[in-house]
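[09:14] KT: can someone run the structure on this one? pasting the chain below
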Amino acid sequence: MVVELDASIVAVSAAAHALDALYGQLITDAIRAAGPKGKGREAHIRECLKRRFKTGRRDVAWVQEFDWLFKLRDAAVHAEVKLLPPVAHPSGIGNSGQVSADYSAEAAMRAVDLLIDVLETCIANPKPGDKDAKAWANDYRSSVETLAMQRDVSRDARPIVTA
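[09:31] RB: done, structure tokens below
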């Protein structure tokens, strides 16, 4: 369980930091000035993506996923130590502490899936009038495709075990 916990914390944090880095690449002064006031970083990232790419309904689905991811990332970065009652582990194997349930293999996969979904959506849908977004999509297309393929190969080679 400790190995799973550590690996999941890394995956969750890495996915959130990668989305933050994507924002850093794509943000413009105009988007920053108009960005959502009084909202968390995840809302700023989504707003930036909506303005540069045709995200369509994906953005609606991302609201909950971004909130989940950044809450977990924040909890990992700013950890609080307190005892919580045991909860069911996502694997179905048994009960565990809340932290082990939050940072599980399933959470790691969900975080990576969100990151890849965002990247694939962006490379496929730059806004027609945004030449810089088009250039970004062309520059990163191969890397994103490779990342998605490596995820799929890894999951095929080592499927998650559940009860």
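[09:33] KT: thanks! The chain has a mean pLDDT of 90.
[09:34] RB: yep, looked fine to me
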